[in-house]
Amino acid sequence: MKIRTEQFKQVAIKEMANARTKMFLGLLPPVFAAMRASALATFPDPAAATAYSASIREEVVASLPELLEEFEKNAVARGAKVFWARDARQANEFILDLARKKGITYTTKGKSMVSEEMGLNDYLKNNGIEPFETDLGEFIAQQLNRPPFHLVGPAINVPPEEICELFIEKADMQEPTHDPVQLGYAARRYLRDKFHNLDMSITGINMAVAETGTIINVENEGNIRLNKSTPKTQVSIMSLEKVVPTMRDAMHLLRMLCRNCTGQKISAYVSFDSGPKKADEIDGPDELYIVIIDNGRSRIYQDLKTRQSLRCIRCGACMNNCPVYSTIGGYPYGWAYTGPMGQVLTPLMLGFDKTQDLYRACTLCGSCKSVCPGGIDHPGMFLYYRSKDVEGDQKFKAKKRDWKEERFFDLWSFGTTRSWAWKLGSKLVRPFLNIHAHHGIVSKIIGGYAFEGWFRNRDLPAFPEKTFHERWKDIQ
Amino acid sequence: MKTVSMFIPCTVDIMLPQIGDDTYRLLKRLDVNPLYHEDQTCCGQPAINAGYLKHAREVAKHFIDVFGEDEVVVSPSGSCVWTVKHHYPELLCDEPDYAQRAEELAGRIYELSQYIVDVLGLEDVGASFQGKVTYHESCHILRGLGISDQPKRLITAAKGVEFMPLNNADRCCGFGGEFANNYPDISEEMVKDKVNNYISSKADLLVLCEPGCMLNIGGYLSRNRPDKKVMHIASFLSASI
């Protein structure tokens, strides 16, 4: 996938002009919020349930190395093969190599965001292996060759008319239809065939249970279940923070994931796999490979502050609640991860120099933080990233700020730490700011190019004759 | 008589001083003795939001030098209170002379409506307004400080008020300090949404507790719907007394 994080503003402006996206985004947050709220209300104490899941995730990121080793040991004991990939390239090469050894021409895929991060589909395709996404939304996004619009619903914004044309062209659909159910059937007919005599499938992993070596997948379409039961070789990929200590922890996170993600108490399908098919079992893969991918996460783990980003369970509640996401949609974020969780994670993975807008296009409203079942303080993370830019911290590929801004804050902090300077300063700037004042309104200010954004669509009240400091004497 | 120290935020000091007057008059009316330290300036929020922590730390120290000995500090801005409560303890945790004072001050600073309802135990403060009123839930007040009921109770207790619910009242108005200036296209969509919800609420007046939101929503109304008004709760509660 082409990384387009640097085109954030341009794509956002384009998306805001898209009437259909706008209408859809107007509906999405209230609908999701209502579904989520009613699902969470089934807990006797939703806040306690959220605090509990947050503390599980906190424990996970505090003891990642130990948990991963335990998971590997138990998964291997149950017959799985575990491959550790330092980065996307190693993971992609391992999977391609495996596919070649098996002599396959195509593979099916269950929805996996880490595979988007790896650019796995493009890599396999460019090397002669055809990957077929089998999640309906992911299949549509793949055929359209577009990045995900939403973490959970990657093609949720694509209208049926467009899907109809697409399926006629690319999925052997015969009769045009705009009926979502019929479109779903068309995709199913086309994809079901791929599962017959399947040699290899690729899935993601929602949770990996350390104490049992079990991998858990959560879905609503049944395609992941097929991906895990029909092939000879199953490859399941996880980023390393997907591990959880115990089955009990996994059960609680499952409750929280489904409620926060789709407003369900439980998704239509949840599959638990501990190793490949055993001698006395009738289905399941002959071989199970679990690929644990780092791709920069060890580095993220080492910084006590950034480590928090690894608490994410990929529910998407943050973006459903984000006022910026629901104004611009998912495309401006420019990579695999959309909305606030992406704004937290993507800069750490790609470097701050290429992802400035992700942690600056935020009003710090805290909606994301207020719903996060992982207990992530997204606004706090953005402030941390901004401070790293000011420091020019090369560990994050931080981007030094403009010297004019630096001088402004030097001057500003000089004034705010000395009340005489504050009072004098506010007296001196007033006439300048008021040069264009008219009837008590300022619609532009002198040398105002730096505030062009504000005055493009907003006024300020004219700067009053006296500051409160000056009025205080009269008031008393 | 209770004595409280007023923190009048920089935005109010320079751009909206009337809110300061109104805060003073309101407190006075409620039998509280409001103090004003003339050495006060700004809480440092702009520097924290822009990532200038070293600068913010100096400003925070100045703030604590000014307010550190006060028994109670009250401010007509939730985001400034949030800055002192939430950011100061972390910002100053490695400053031996300030760390503990920051922790202690965090427990003694209140947003205005919170102070009136939770500490003074008042709801009817003698305000009156003939008309329909709605309320915008500013982000730092609602999700930061957990204040939502208090201002609404104060508004509904005013004589003549018909309280109108506001659709998506808890949604950000698109201010976010530098965000409004740096992402004007996105910010405009957000403030437009807020204003549309205000208009469809049929309220005659939008009341809020945050000067930042007031500049943003008020600035947009001034340009696009000058007939619609927004008012700070201090002015709303004191004007009619």
Share in β-strands of chain A = 5-15%
Shape of chain B: globular
Helix/strand-derived class of chain B? Answer: alpha/beta
Could you say what the CATH architecture of the largest domain in chain B is?
A: 3-Layer(aba) Sandwich
SSE pattern of chain B, N- to C-terminal: EHHEHHEHHEHEHHEHHEHEH
CATH topology of the largest domain in chain A: Rossmann fold
* Rg measurement of chain B, Å: 17 Å
Low-confidence runs of chain A: none
Poorly predicted regions of chain B: none
Number of domains of chain A: 3
Task: Tell me, rounded to a whole number, the average pLDDT of chain A.
Answer: 95
Number of strands of chain A: 13
User: How many beta strands in the DSSP annotation of chain B?
Assistant: 8
- Give the termini distance of chain B in whole angstroms: 20 Å
- Strand composition percent of chain B: 5-15%
- Spatially, the strands of the biggest sheet of chain B line up as 2-1-3-4
For the report, how would you describe the main beta sheet of chain A? 6 strands, parallel
Give the tally of structural domains of chain B.
2
**Shape estimate of chain A:** elongated
